[in-house]
Amino acid sequence: MTEIRTRFAPSPTGFLHVGGLRTALYNYLFARKNGGTFVLRIEDTDQSRKVPGAVENLIETLEWGGIRYDEGPGREGDVGPYIQSQRITLYQQYAHRLVEEGKAYYCFCSADRLKELRAKQLAAKQATSYDRHCRNLSGEEVRALLKSGVPYVVRMKIPLAGALTFDDLIRGQVTISYENIDDQVILKSDGYPTYHLAVVVDDHCMKISHVIRGEEWLPSTPKHVILFGYLGWDPPKFAHLPLLLNPDRSKLSKRQGDVAVEDYRTRGYLNEALVNFVALLGWNPGDEREIFSLEDLTKEFSLERVNSSGAVFNVEKLDWMNAEHLRQMPEQELLNLLKLQLASSRFKDLKFEDSYLLGVIRAMRERVTFVKEFESKSPYFFEAPQTYDSDVVKKRWKPESGGYLKKLATTFAGLEKTDKEALEGALHGAAEALGVGNGELIHPLRLAVSGTGSGPGLYDILSVLGKKETLRRIDAAIERLR
RNA sequence: GGCGCCAUCGUCUAACGGUUCAGGACGGAGCCCUCUCAAGGCUCAAAUACGGGUUCGAUUCCCGUUGGCGCUACCA
User: Fold this and answer.
1) pTM of the prediction?
2) Cα separation values, A161 from A110, A156, A176, A178, Å
3) Which of residues 114-153 of A touch strand B (CB under 7 A)?
4) Disulfide check for A296: which of A127, A148, A268, A292 has CB 3.0–4.6 Å away?
5) Do the interacting molecules here have an ipTM over 0.90?
6) Strand B: which bases are under 7 Å from protein Cβ?
Protein backbone atom coordinates (compact mmCIF):
# COMPACT_ATOMS: atom_id res chain seq x y z
CA MET A 1 0.00 0.00 0.00
CA THR A 2 1.30 3.42 -0.87
CA GLU A 3 1.91 5.94 1.82
CA ILE A 4 -0.87 8.34 2.67
CA ARG A 5 0.17 11.91 1.96
CA THR A 6 -2.18 14.89 2.12
CA ARG A 7 -1.60 18.56 1.70
CA PHE A 8 -3.12 21.91 2.49
CA ALA A 9 -2.28 24.36 -0.26
CA PRO A 10 -3.45 27.89 0.46
CA SER A 11 -2.50 30.96 -1.49
CA PRO A 12 -1.02 33.67 0.69
CA THR A 13 -3.51 36.38 -0.14
CA GLY A 14 -4.56 37.33 3.36
CA PHE A 15 -5.61 35.57 6.50
CA LEU A 16 -6.55 31.97 7.11
CA HIS A 17 -10.24 31.57 6.43
CA VAL A 18 -12.32 29.32 8.70
CA GLY A 19 -13.12 27.24 5.62
CA GLY A 20 -9.40 26.91 5.07
CA LEU A 21 -9.00 25.88 8.66
CA ARG A 22 -11.46 23.06 8.15
CA THR A 23 -9.81 21.94 4.92
CA ALA A 24 -6.44 21.96 6.63
CA LEU A 25 -7.91 20.10 9.58
CA TYR A 26 -9.45 17.32 7.50
CA ASN A 27 -6.20 16.86 5.61
CA TYR A 28 -4.30 16.79 8.87
CA LEU A 29 -6.72 14.38 10.54
CA PHE A 30 -6.82 12.03 7.58
CA ALA A 31 -3.04 11.87 7.46
CA ARG A 32 -2.74 11.37 11.22
CA LYS A 33 -5.42 8.72 11.34
CA ASN A 34 -3.71 6.72 8.63
CA GLY A 35 -0.14 7.13 9.75
CA GLY A 36 0.54 9.41 6.82
CA THR A 37 2.20 12.73 6.19
CA PHE A 38 0.60 16.15 6.10
CA VAL A 39 2.23 18.69 3.80
CA LEU A 40 1.83 22.45 3.72
CA ARG A 41 2.38 23.99 0.30
CA ILE A 42 2.14 27.67 -0.52
CA GLU A 43 0.46 28.46 -3.84
CA ASP A 44 1.77 31.88 -4.69
CA THR A 45 1.75 31.75 -8.47
CA ASP A 46 -0.30 34.90 -8.77
CA GLN A 47 2.20 37.67 -8.29
CA SER A 48 -0.44 40.37 -8.23
CA ARG A 49 -2.28 38.90 -5.27
CA LYS A 50 0.67 38.34 -2.97
CA VAL A 51 0.31 39.83 0.49
CA PRO A 52 3.43 40.39 2.56
CA GLY A 53 3.50 38.46 5.80
CA ALA A 54 0.60 36.22 4.78
CA VAL A 55 2.66 33.04 4.80
CA GLU A 56 3.96 33.64 8.30
CA ASN A 57 0.47 34.51 9.45
CA LEU A 58 -0.96 31.39 7.86
CA ILE A 59 1.56 29.15 9.55
CA GLU A 60 1.18 30.86 12.89
CA THR A 61 -2.60 30.53 12.77
CA LEU A 62 -2.44 26.88 11.76
CA GLU A 63 -0.13 26.16 14.68
CA TRP A 64 -2.51 27.99 17.00
CA GLY A 65 -5.18 25.56 15.87
CA GLY A 66 -2.85 22.70 16.72
CA ILE A 67 -2.54 21.70 13.08
CA ARG A 68 1.12 20.91 12.70
CA TYR A 69 2.45 20.10 9.26
CA ASP A 70 5.09 17.45 8.75
CA GLU A 71 6.61 18.97 5.64
CA GLY A 72 6.43 22.47 4.31
CA PRO A 73 8.13 25.84 4.49
CA GLY A 74 10.72 25.75 7.26
CA ARG A 75 10.22 22.03 7.71
CA GLU A 76 11.84 20.64 4.61
CA GLY A 77 11.24 17.11 3.44
CA ASP A 78 12.55 15.33 0.34
CA VAL A 79 10.21 16.90 -2.17
CA GLY A 80 10.61 20.61 -1.54
CA PRO A 81 10.74 23.48 -1.96
CA TYR A 82 7.17 23.89 -0.76
CA ILE A 83 6.61 27.36 -2.11
CA GLN A 84 5.47 27.38 -5.71
CA SER A 85 7.22 30.59 -6.70
CA GLN A 86 10.45 28.73 -5.99
CA ARG A 87 9.54 25.97 -8.40
CA ILE A 88 8.65 27.83 -11.59
CA THR A 89 11.34 26.30 -13.77
CA LEU A 90 9.85 22.93 -13.00
CA TYR A 91 6.42 23.99 -14.23
CA GLN A 92 7.93 25.62 -17.30
CA GLN A 93 9.74 22.41 -18.20
CA TYR A 94 6.54 20.42 -18.03
CA ALA A 95 4.56 23.03 -19.94
CA HIS A 96 7.05 22.99 -22.78
CA ARG A 97 7.23 19.23 -22.74
CA LEU A 98 3.48 19.15 -23.24
CA VAL A 99 3.82 21.52 -26.18
CA GLU A 100 6.50 19.35 -27.74
CA GLU A 101 4.33 16.31 -27.34
CA GLY A 102 1.39 18.04 -28.98
CA LYS A 103 -0.71 18.05 -25.79
CA ALA A 104 -0.55 21.78 -25.37
CA TYR A 105 0.08 24.78 -27.59
CA TYR A 106 1.28 28.35 -27.59
CA CYS A 107 -1.44 30.93 -27.66
CA PHE A 108 -0.65 34.44 -28.80
CA CYS A 109 -4.11 35.89 -28.49
CA SER A 110 -4.10 39.32 -26.91
CA ALA A 111 -6.19 40.26 -23.93
CA ASP A 112 -8.17 42.53 -26.22
CA ARG A 113 -9.02 39.76 -28.64
CA LEU A 114 -10.10 37.52 -25.79
CA LYS A 115 -12.22 40.28 -24.35
CA GLU A 116 -13.87 40.92 -27.67
CA LEU A 117 -14.52 37.23 -28.20
CA ARG A 118 -16.15 37.05 -24.81
CA ALA A 119 -18.37 40.03 -25.48
CA LYS A 120 -19.47 38.56 -28.78
CA GLN A 121 -20.33 35.22 -27.20
CA LEU A 122 -22.22 36.91 -24.43
CA ALA A 123 -24.19 38.98 -26.91
CA ALA A 124 -25.06 35.84 -28.86
CA LYS A 125 -26.09 34.19 -25.57
CA GLN A 126 -23.47 31.51 -26.08
CA ALA A 127 -21.28 29.88 -23.48
CA THR A 128 -18.10 31.88 -23.09
CA SER A 129 -15.05 29.88 -24.00
CA TYR A 130 -11.80 30.22 -25.89
CA ASP A 131 -12.32 29.62 -29.60
CA ARG A 132 -9.07 27.64 -29.93
CA HIS A 133 -7.79 30.08 -32.50
CA CYS A 134 -4.12 29.34 -31.79
CA ARG A 135 -4.63 25.60 -31.58
CA ASN A 136 -4.60 25.54 -35.36
CA LEU A 137 -1.56 27.68 -35.99
CA SER A 138 1.02 26.08 -38.27
CA GLY A 139 4.55 25.34 -37.12
CA GLU A 140 5.91 28.21 -39.17
CA GLU A 141 3.39 30.66 -37.83
CA VAL A 142 4.26 29.69 -34.29
CA ARG A 143 7.98 29.98 -34.90
CA ALA A 144 7.55 33.39 -36.50
CA LEU A 145 5.39 34.70 -33.69
CA LEU A 146 7.81 33.37 -31.11
CA LYS A 147 10.74 34.96 -32.92
CA SER A 148 9.06 38.35 -33.15
CA GLY A 149 8.63 38.32 -29.39
CA VAL A 150 4.83 38.36 -29.19
CA PRO A 151 3.84 37.45 -25.63
CA TYR A 152 2.30 34.02 -25.33
CA VAL A 153 0.65 31.65 -22.90
CA VAL A 154 0.54 27.88 -23.05
CA ARG A 155 -2.86 26.24 -23.26
CA MET A 156 -3.62 22.57 -22.74
CA LYS A 157 -5.52 20.74 -25.47
CA ILE A 158 -8.83 19.41 -24.31
CA PRO A 159 -10.08 16.46 -26.40
CA LEU A 160 -12.65 17.67 -28.90
CA ALA A 161 -15.24 15.04 -28.14
CA GLY A 162 -16.19 12.59 -25.44
CA ALA A 163 -16.44 12.95 -21.70
CA LEU A 164 -14.38 12.38 -18.63
CA THR A 165 -15.46 10.55 -15.50
CA PHE A 166 -13.55 10.57 -12.28
CA ASP A 167 -14.18 9.24 -8.79
CA ASP A 168 -14.67 11.46 -5.83
CA LEU A 169 -14.45 9.90 -2.40
CA ILE A 170 -17.31 12.06 -1.17
CA ARG A 171 -19.48 12.46 -4.26
CA GLY A 172 -18.98 9.25 -6.16
CA GLN A 173 -18.56 9.41 -9.92
CA VAL A 174 -18.60 12.79 -11.58
CA THR A 175 -18.81 13.10 -15.35
CA ILE A 176 -18.17 16.16 -17.51
CA SER A 177 -18.21 16.39 -21.30
CA TYR A 178 -15.04 17.66 -22.92
CA GLU A 179 -17.04 20.17 -24.92
CA ASN A 180 -17.75 22.00 -21.70
CA ILE A 181 -14.10 22.41 -20.83
CA ASP A 182 -11.99 25.25 -22.12
CA ASP A 183 -8.48 24.91 -23.49
CA GLN A 184 -7.16 26.06 -20.18
CA VAL A 185 -4.13 28.32 -19.84
CA ILE A 186 -1.49 26.39 -17.93
CA LEU A 187 1.45 28.78 -18.27
CA LYS A 188 0.89 32.52 -18.08
CA SER A 189 2.70 35.12 -20.15
CA ASP A 190 4.76 36.13 -17.14
CA GLY A 191 6.20 32.61 -17.05
CA TYR A 192 4.27 31.57 -13.96
CA PRO A 193 2.03 28.52 -14.12
CA THR A 194 -1.67 28.75 -13.43
CA TYR A 195 -3.16 26.78 -10.57
CA HIS A 196 -4.08 23.89 -12.83
CA LEU A 197 -0.56 23.08 -13.96
CA ALA A 198 1.10 23.82 -10.65
CA VAL A 199 -1.31 21.71 -8.64
CA VAL A 200 -0.87 18.70 -10.90
CA VAL A 201 2.91 18.91 -11.06
CA ASP A 202 3.21 19.44 -7.32
CA ASP A 203 0.71 16.85 -6.22
CA HIS A 204 2.61 14.34 -8.32
CA CYS A 205 6.11 15.43 -7.38
CA MET A 206 5.15 15.67 -3.72
CA LYS A 207 3.64 12.18 -3.89
CA ILE A 208 0.26 13.38 -2.66
CA SER A 209 -2.08 10.39 -2.36
CA HIS A 210 -5.30 12.22 -1.45
CA VAL A 211 -6.38 15.66 -2.59
CA ILE A 212 -8.88 16.91 -0.02
CA ARG A 213 -10.09 20.36 -0.96
CA GLY A 214 -13.15 22.59 -1.21
CA GLU A 215 -16.04 21.89 -3.53
CA GLU A 216 -15.24 24.97 -5.61
CA TRP A 217 -12.55 22.83 -7.26
CA LEU A 218 -14.89 20.13 -8.43
CA PRO A 219 -15.55 21.65 -11.88
CA SER A 220 -11.86 21.98 -12.67
CA THR A 221 -10.87 18.52 -11.55
CA PRO A 222 -11.34 17.05 -15.06
CA LYS A 223 -8.63 19.42 -16.33
CA HIS A 224 -6.34 18.09 -13.67
CA VAL A 225 -7.14 14.50 -14.48
CA ILE A 226 -6.40 15.16 -18.14
CA LEU A 227 -3.10 16.76 -17.23
CA PHE A 228 -2.11 13.83 -15.04
CA GLY A 229 -2.81 11.59 -18.03
CA TYR A 230 -0.86 13.78 -20.46
CA LEU A 231 2.12 13.72 -18.13
CA GLY A 232 1.87 9.94 -17.73
CA TRP A 233 1.09 10.06 -14.03
CA ASP A 234 -1.54 8.38 -11.90
CA PRO A 235 -3.89 10.93 -10.42
CA PRO A 236 -4.34 11.02 -6.64
CA LYS A 237 -7.67 10.25 -5.04
CA PHE A 238 -9.99 13.23 -4.80
CA ALA A 239 -12.30 14.29 -2.00
CA HIS A 240 -14.25 17.52 -2.48
CA LEU A 241 -15.53 19.00 0.74
CA PRO A 242 -18.89 20.75 1.08
CA LEU A 243 -18.74 24.52 1.32
CA LEU A 244 -19.09 26.56 4.48
CA LEU A 245 -21.99 28.97 4.18
CA ASN A 246 -23.20 32.32 5.49
CA PRO A 247 -26.53 32.35 7.36
CA ASP A 248 -28.19 33.22 4.03
CA ARG A 249 -26.60 30.11 2.50
CA SER A 250 -24.21 31.90 0.19
CA LYS A 251 -20.56 30.91 0.28
CA LEU A 252 -19.05 32.02 3.57
CA SER A 253 -17.62 35.46 3.16
CA LYS A 254 -16.65 38.63 4.87
CA ARG A 255 -19.51 41.09 5.21
CA GLN A 256 -21.74 38.68 7.04
CA GLY A 257 -19.47 38.20 10.02
CA ASP A 258 -15.97 37.10 10.70
CA VAL A 259 -14.30 34.62 8.40
CA ALA A 260 -10.69 34.94 9.46
CA VAL A 261 -9.56 32.44 12.06
CA GLU A 262 -7.66 35.28 13.61
CA ASP A 263 -10.87 37.21 14.19
CA TYR A 264 -12.26 34.37 16.25
CA ARG A 265 -9.00 34.10 18.10
CA THR A 266 -9.05 37.75 19.10
CA ARG A 267 -12.68 37.52 20.07
CA GLY A 268 -11.64 35.01 22.67
CA TYR A 269 -12.57 31.66 21.20
CA LEU A 270 -10.51 28.73 22.37
CA ASN A 271 -8.48 27.02 19.67
CA GLU A 272 -9.86 23.62 20.56
CA ALA A 273 -13.43 24.90 20.49
CA LEU A 274 -13.07 26.46 17.05
CA VAL A 275 -11.37 23.34 15.71
CA ASN A 276 -14.03 21.12 17.28
CA PHE A 277 -16.73 23.27 15.77
CA VAL A 278 -15.43 23.36 12.20
CA ALA A 279 -14.67 19.64 12.36
CA LEU A 280 -18.39 19.03 12.85
CA LEU A 281 -19.34 21.17 9.86
CA GLY A 282 -19.52 18.39 7.30
CA TRP A 283 -18.36 15.50 9.41
CA ASN A 284 -19.76 13.61 12.40
CA PRO A 285 -18.62 10.58 14.36
CA GLY A 286 -21.81 8.61 13.72
CA ASP A 287 -22.97 8.75 17.31
CA GLU A 288 -24.15 11.58 19.50
CA ARG A 289 -20.87 12.85 20.86
CA GLU A 290 -20.06 16.44 20.00
CA ILE A 291 -17.24 17.58 22.21
CA PHE A 292 -13.88 16.51 20.87
CA SER A 293 -10.30 17.45 21.50
CA LEU A 294 -7.97 17.50 18.53
CA GLU A 295 -6.58 14.21 19.76
CA ASP A 296 -10.06 12.66 19.88
CA LEU A 297 -10.71 13.84 16.35
CA THR A 298 -7.50 12.25 15.19
CA LYS A 299 -8.77 8.92 16.42
CA GLU A 300 -12.29 9.27 15.09
CA PHE A 301 -11.99 11.00 11.74
CA SER A 302 -12.82 9.27 8.50
CA LEU A 303 -13.52 10.53 5.00
CA GLU A 304 -16.43 8.09 4.71
CA ARG A 305 -18.35 10.12 7.26
CA VAL A 306 -17.89 13.44 5.52
CA ASN A 307 -21.16 14.56 3.97
CA SER A 308 -21.74 16.40 0.75
CA SER A 309 -24.04 19.33 1.42
CA GLY A 310 -22.94 22.79 2.47
CA ALA A 311 -23.05 23.82 6.13
CA VAL A 312 -24.01 27.16 7.62
CA PHE A 313 -21.49 28.52 10.08
CA ASN A 314 -23.67 28.99 13.13
CA VAL A 315 -21.94 31.19 15.71
CA GLU A 316 -24.45 30.43 18.47
CA LYS A 317 -23.44 26.83 18.53
CA LEU A 318 -19.79 27.82 18.45
CA ASP A 319 -20.39 29.89 21.58
CA TRP A 320 -21.94 26.94 23.35
CA MET A 321 -19.04 24.77 22.31
CA ASN A 322 -16.57 27.31 23.59
CA ALA A 323 -18.30 27.26 26.96
CA GLU A 324 -18.20 23.47 26.97
CA HIS A 325 -14.47 23.43 26.35
CA LEU A 326 -13.99 26.05 29.03
CA ARG A 327 -15.80 23.84 31.54
CA GLN A 328 -13.79 20.76 30.67
CA MET A 329 -10.42 22.44 30.73
CA PRO A 330 -8.00 21.53 33.54
CA GLU A 331 -7.92 24.24 36.21
CA GLN A 332 -4.26 25.01 35.78
CA GLU A 333 -4.72 25.62 32.09
CA LEU A 334 -7.66 27.90 32.71
CA LEU A 335 -5.64 29.67 35.37
CA ASN A 336 -2.97 30.51 32.83
CA LEU A 337 -5.54 31.84 30.41
CA LEU A 338 -7.14 33.93 33.12
CA LYS A 339 -3.78 35.42 34.10
CA LEU A 340 -3.14 36.28 30.48
CA GLN A 341 -6.53 37.90 30.22
CA LEU A 342 -6.03 39.89 33.42
CA ALA A 343 -2.62 41.06 32.25
CA SER A 344 -4.26 42.89 29.37
CA SER A 345 -7.20 44.20 31.35
CA ARG A 346 -7.72 47.26 33.48
CA PHE A 347 -6.69 45.14 36.45
CA LYS A 348 -3.24 44.52 35.03
CA ASP A 349 -1.47 46.33 37.85
CA LEU A 350 -3.11 44.29 40.59
CA LYS A 351 -1.56 41.13 41.95
CA PHE A 352 -3.63 38.08 42.75
CA GLU A 353 -2.53 34.81 44.31
CA ASP A 354 -3.03 31.70 42.19
CA SER A 355 -5.18 30.27 44.95
CA TYR A 356 -7.39 33.34 44.81
CA LEU A 357 -7.79 33.14 41.04
CA LEU A 358 -8.51 29.44 41.30
CA GLY A 359 -11.32 30.35 43.67
CA VAL A 360 -12.69 32.76 41.08
CA ILE A 361 -12.45 30.07 38.43
CA ARG A 362 -14.33 27.53 40.52
CA ALA A 363 -17.03 30.08 41.27
CA MET A 364 -17.47 31.40 37.74
CA ARG A 365 -16.53 28.59 35.39
CA GLU A 366 -20.10 27.42 34.83
CA ARG A 367 -21.21 30.95 34.16
CA VAL A 368 -18.87 32.09 31.42
CA THR A 369 -18.55 31.44 27.70
CA PHE A 370 -15.28 33.30 27.23
CA VAL A 371 -12.26 33.73 29.46
CA LYS A 372 -12.67 37.48 29.34
CA GLU A 373 -16.05 37.09 31.01
CA PHE A 374 -14.38 36.23 34.29
CA GLU A 375 -13.51 39.88 34.28
CA SER A 376 -16.58 41.37 32.65
CA LYS A 377 -19.20 39.27 34.42
CA SER A 378 -17.61 39.29 37.84
CA PRO A 379 -15.43 42.37 38.17
CA TYR A 380 -16.19 42.30 41.90
CA PHE A 381 -13.60 39.61 42.37
CA PHE A 382 -10.99 42.11 41.26
CA GLU A 383 -12.28 45.34 42.71
CA ALA A 384 -14.90 46.38 45.27
CA PRO A 385 -18.19 47.43 43.69
CA GLN A 386 -18.28 51.11 42.82
CA THR A 387 -22.00 51.17 42.20
CA TYR A 388 -24.97 48.98 43.00
CA ASP A 389 -27.43 47.74 40.41
CA SER A 390 -30.43 49.99 40.93
CA ASP A 391 -33.03 47.37 40.02
CA VAL A 392 -31.56 45.00 42.56
CA VAL A 393 -31.37 47.75 45.18
CA LYS A 394 -35.02 48.48 44.64
CA LYS A 395 -35.95 44.84 44.94
CA ARG A 396 -33.62 43.62 47.68
CA TRP A 397 -32.47 46.53 49.80
CA LYS A 398 -34.96 47.45 52.46
CA PRO A 399 -34.75 50.19 55.07
CA GLU A 400 -33.79 47.65 57.69
CA SER A 401 -31.19 45.85 55.53
CA GLY A 402 -28.38 48.07 56.72
CA GLY A 403 -29.11 47.21 60.31
CA TYR A 404 -29.29 43.51 59.54
CA LEU A 405 -25.98 43.57 57.76
CA LYS A 406 -24.36 45.47 60.59
CA LYS A 407 -25.41 42.72 62.94
CA LEU A 408 -24.24 40.09 60.47
CA ALA A 409 -20.90 41.81 60.15
CA THR A 410 -20.39 41.55 63.86
CA THR A 411 -21.08 37.83 63.70
CA PHE A 412 -18.68 37.39 60.78
CA ALA A 413 -16.02 39.41 62.55
CA GLY A 414 -16.02 36.93 65.39
CA LEU A 415 -15.55 33.96 63.09
CA GLU A 416 -12.29 32.04 63.20
CA LYS A 417 -12.86 29.83 60.22
CA THR A 418 -14.34 31.49 57.13
CA ASP A 419 -14.98 28.56 54.84
CA LYS A 420 -18.36 28.20 53.16
CA GLU A 421 -19.88 26.09 55.90
CA ALA A 422 -18.79 28.46 58.67
CA LEU A 423 -20.15 31.46 56.77
CA GLU A 424 -23.42 29.76 56.07
CA GLY A 425 -23.77 28.71 59.68
CA ALA A 426 -23.02 32.22 60.85
CA LEU A 427 -25.55 33.77 58.51
CA HIS A 428 -28.26 31.34 59.51
CA GLY A 429 -27.49 32.06 63.15
CA ALA A 430 -27.69 35.80 62.60
CA ALA A 431 -30.97 35.50 60.72
CA GLU A 432 -32.45 33.45 63.51
CA ALA A 433 -31.28 35.90 66.13
CA LEU A 434 -32.86 38.73 64.13
CA GLY A 435 -36.00 36.71 63.65
CA VAL A 436 -35.94 37.04 59.82
CA GLY A 437 -35.60 34.62 56.91
CA ASN A 438 -32.16 33.87 55.48
CA GLY A 439 -33.11 35.70 52.32
CA GLU A 440 -33.36 38.97 54.23
CA LEU A 441 -29.61 38.73 54.74
CA ILE A 442 -28.48 36.81 51.68
CA HIS A 443 -29.79 39.18 49.05
CA PRO A 444 -28.64 42.45 50.58
CA LEU A 445 -25.29 40.87 51.33
CA ARG A 446 -24.82 39.72 47.74
CA LEU A 447 -25.63 43.23 46.63
CA ALA A 448 -23.20 44.68 49.14
CA VAL A 449 -20.25 42.55 48.13
CA SER A 450 -20.84 42.30 44.40
CA GLY A 451 -22.99 45.24 43.42
CA THR A 452 -25.22 42.92 41.41
CA GLY A 453 -28.03 40.47 41.94
CA SER A 454 -26.64 37.57 40.01
CA GLY A 455 -23.59 35.37 40.11
CA PRO A 456 -22.19 32.44 42.06
CA GLY A 457 -23.58 31.24 45.35
CA LEU A 458 -23.18 33.85 48.06
CA TYR A 459 -20.92 31.72 50.21
CA ASP A 460 -18.70 31.00 47.26
CA ILE A 461 -18.27 34.70 46.68
CA LEU A 462 -17.59 35.38 50.33
CA SER A 463 -15.10 32.59 50.79
CA VAL A 464 -13.16 33.79 47.77
CA LEU A 465 -13.17 37.42 48.90
CA GLY A 466 -12.16 36.56 52.45
CA LYS A 467 -13.38 37.93 55.74
CA LYS A 468 -11.54 41.22 55.72
CA GLU A 469 -12.71 42.26 52.27
CA THR A 470 -16.24 41.08 53.01
CA LEU A 471 -16.47 43.23 56.11
CA ARG A 472 -15.04 46.20 54.30
CA ARG A 473 -17.62 45.89 51.53
CA ILE A 474 -20.46 45.50 54.00
CA ASP A 475 -19.44 48.75 55.70
CA ALA A 476 -19.16 50.57 52.41
CA ALA A 477 -22.57 49.38 51.29
CA ILE A 478 -24.29 50.35 54.51
CA GLU A 479 -22.74 53.75 54.15
CA ARG A 480 -23.72 54.24 50.53
CA LEU A 481 -27.17 52.65 50.52
CA ARG A 482 -28.34 54.29 53.68
C1' G B 1 -26.98 31.59 -20.14
C1' G B 2 -23.86 26.78 -20.04
C1' C B 3 -21.86 22.95 -16.91
C1' G B 4 -21.55 20.67 -12.20
C1' C B 5 -22.74 19.79 -7.06
C1' C B 6 -26.38 19.72 -3.26
C1' A B 7 -31.52 19.14 -0.94
C1' U B 8 -34.12 15.83 6.80
C1' C B 9 -36.49 20.62 12.38
C1' G B 10 -34.49 28.07 12.06
C1' U B 11 -29.09 25.94 12.31
C1' C B 12 -25.41 21.52 12.69
C1' U B 13 -26.80 16.63 11.89
C1' A B 14 -28.48 10.78 12.69
C1' A B 15 -31.00 7.13 9.71
C1' C B 16 -26.27 3.29 5.11
C1' G B 17 -35.10 -0.07 2.03
C1' G B 18 -38.40 -2.30 7.10
C1' U B 19 -36.29 -2.37 14.79
C1' U B 20 -39.06 5.50 13.27
C1' C B 21 -45.51 8.37 16.14
C1' A B 22 -38.08 10.46 11.76
C1' G B 23 -33.20 10.39 16.84
C1' G B 24 -29.43 13.94 19.02
C1' A B 25 -27.24 18.93 19.57
C1' C B 26 -27.49 24.53 19.34
C1' G B 27 -31.15 28.18 19.73
C1' G B 28 -36.52 28.94 21.62
C1' A B 29 -40.68 27.85 25.34
C1' G B 30 -42.05 25.62 30.04
C1' C B 31 -41.22 22.91 34.62
C1' C B 32 -37.85 21.10 38.51
C1' C B 33 -33.57 22.28 41.48
C1' U B 34 -32.45 27.00 44.06
C1' C B 35 -30.14 32.73 48.07
C1' U B 36 -29.67 35.24 42.63
C1' C B 37 -27.49 34.02 37.89
C1' A B 38 -25.70 29.99 35.58
C1' A B 39 -24.88 24.77 35.21
C1' G B 40 -27.78 20.32 35.50
C1' G B 41 -32.43 17.28 35.02
C1' C B 42 -37.26 16.73 32.71
C1' U B 43 -40.90 18.30 29.05
C1' C B 44 -42.76 20.89 24.67
C1' A B 45 -42.82 23.28 19.71
C1' A B 46 -39.95 22.39 15.20
C1' A B 47 -37.98 18.71 9.34
C1' U B 48 -37.76 14.28 5.18
C1' A B 49 -38.80 20.69 -1.08
C1' C B 50 -42.52 18.94 -4.92
C1' G B 51 -44.22 15.23 -8.57
C1' G B 52 -43.66 10.67 -10.67
C1' G B 53 -41.73 5.84 -10.70
C1' U B 54 -39.01 0.94 -8.65
C1' U B 55 -40.51 -2.16 -4.42
C1' C B 56 -44.62 -6.05 -0.32
C1' G B 57 -42.36 -1.53 1.88
C1' A B 58 -39.22 4.38 0.70
C1' U B 59 -35.93 9.91 4.35
C1' U B 60 -33.05 6.03 2.02
C1' C B 61 -32.86 3.73 -5.06
C1' C B 62 -34.17 6.00 -10.22
C1' C B 63 -36.28 10.11 -13.23
C1' G B 64 -38.26 14.93 -13.63
C1' U B 65 -39.50 19.76 -11.48
C1' U B 66 -38.23 23.49 -8.16
C1' G B 67 -34.77 25.78 -5.16
C1' G B 68 -29.83 26.78 -3.26
C1' C B 69 -24.79 26.93 -4.15
C1' G B 70 -20.33 26.53 -7.00
C1' C B 71 -17.56 26.98 -11.55
C1' U B 72 -17.55 29.37 -16.19
C1' A B 73 -9.96 34.47 -15.71
C1' C B 74 -3.09 34.80 -18.19
C1' C B 75 -7.26 34.22 -9.45
C1' A B 76 -6.60 30.46 -6.59
Assistant:
1) 0.95
2) 27, 15, 11, 6
3) 114, 118, 125, 127-130, 151, 153
4) A292
5) yes
6) 1-8, 10-15, 23-27, 35-39, 68-76
